[in-house]
Specification:
The chain folds into two domains: 285 residues, Phosphoenolpyruvate-binding domains (TIM Barrel); 39 residues, no CATH class. Helix content is 45%, strand content 13%. It contains 15 helices and ten strands. The structure holds 5,10-methenyl-6,7,8-trihydrofolic acid (MHF) and 3-methyl-2-oxobutanoic acid (KIV).
């Protein structure tokens, strides 16, 4: 009897209403066109005239109304452009860049300069979504001053609007400092890939009462320090729901169940471009790997068999008299 009474509120909280993607765009203000964009991409002016820039305020309103937030990683101009064009709310230049784009074996290998190089490319393509970059491993640990210097570089030279930091209560002072000077911080708790060595691998976090408490306390401390949103990675869905219901900022889940304020996936995972391990939380929404295989194999085969290029449609003509003159000129 008592158990049923206790269960009803948590069930109700789990069944938050969810409105359509049109609802998600309702609050977004008109984004001013930017001359640099129009010169660079041509069609950008038309898109910008229709587009609505996503802000932190919109993200908070989406959380309040139960409109799910869609976040995706991007690493270059075309992936940034795709986020811009197809309704993504937050583009993340994730440090998964290290593994999926640069071939490193871990995100801890990524430098700030490498991150900046990719942020600039993504920023040129992704204008409407809110743009966040991961602070690379080591770029926010030595001191708050160091974190400020490096976060300023990401904003100033990388063109991003906010930074993401992995960690718990120990990074709260850094989050407070960055927030106080106007650099919005997205926190990241649960599985912390930058600490995979000390954690002995990529493992689901918060599976027992004690570690669930620790993830929960981290989220509360980081919200308190001023984080505008919190990524919850690889934690039991009950814990993801609980944290989401207790916080007043949006939660973005990756392997944290269906009740977070939003979801994030790595571009290469959702597109099936990543050849490595597939985590349980990954759903493949498109099959780029198969298309790549078909495209490259067909091209190689056409070159080898001499069927590419075609002399009529894929080659250039020359006036016959000019050609004769050319030959005569050679004697
Ligand atoms: N392609 C890709 N996708 C990601 O989501 C991702 C990266 N790379 N690189 C950086 C980090 C690393 N991440 C990872 C990596 C592995 C697991 C993983 O293997 N998880 C196990 C958990 C097993 C368990 O503890 O029960 C799984 O199989 O889901 C999870 C997140 C998330 N990030
Ligand atoms: C998996 C996401 C949240 C991330 O941090 C990354 O892409 O690096």
């Amino acid at each position: 009897m008592t158990r049923n009474i206790v269960k009803i509120p948590s069930l109700l909280l789990a069944l938050k209403p969810r409105s359509s993607i049109c609802g998600a765009r309702r609050w977004m203000s008109v984004r001013p066109p930017d001359k640099h964009d129009m010169r660079e991409t041509g069609i950008a002016s038309e898109r910008l005239a229709r587009g609505k820039k996503v802000t932190i305020q919109h993200l908070h309103e989406m959380r309040q109304s139960g409109t799910p937030i869609a976040m995706v990683t991007a690493y270059d101009f075309p992936t940034g452009r795709a986020c811009d064009s197809y309704g993504v709310d937050i583009t993340l230049v994730g440090d998964s860049l290290a593994q999926v784009c640069l071939g490193y074996d871990s995100t801890t290998r990524l430098t700030l300069d490498e991150m900046l190089h990719h942020c600039r490319a993504v920023a040129r393509g992704s204008k409407i979504p809110f743009l966040v970059a991961d602070m690379p491993f080591g770029s926010y640990h030595a001191s708050s001053e160091d974190a400020v210097r490096n976060a300023v570089r990401l904003v100033q030279q990388g063109g991003v609007e906010a930074v993401k930091l992995e960690g718990g209560e120990e990074i709260a002072p850094t989050v407070r400092k960055l927030t106080s000077i106007g650099i919005p911080v997205m926190a990241h708790v649960g599985l912390l890939p930058q600490r995979h060595t000390s954690l002995s691998g990529y493992r689901v976090q918060g599976k027992d009462a004690l570690s669930a408490r620790s993830v929960y306390n981290s989220a509360l401390a980081l919200e308190n320090a001023g984080a505008f949103a919190i990524v919850l990675e690889a934690i039991p869905h009950l814990l993801g729901t609980h944290i989401t219901n207790r916080l007043s900022v949006p939660t973005i889940g990756i392997g944290a169940g269906p009740n977070t304020s939003g979801q994030v996936l790595v571009w290469d995972d959702l597109m099936s471009r990543w050849h490595g391990h597939k985590a349980k939380f990954v759903r493949r929404f498109a099959d780029v790997q198969t298309e790549e295989m078909k495209g490259v194999s067909a091209y190689v085969s056409a070159v080898k068999t001499g069927t590419f290029p075609d002399s009529m449609n894929e080659s250039y003509e020359m006036d016959e008299s000019e050609w004769r003159q050319f030959l005569e000129g050679l004697g």
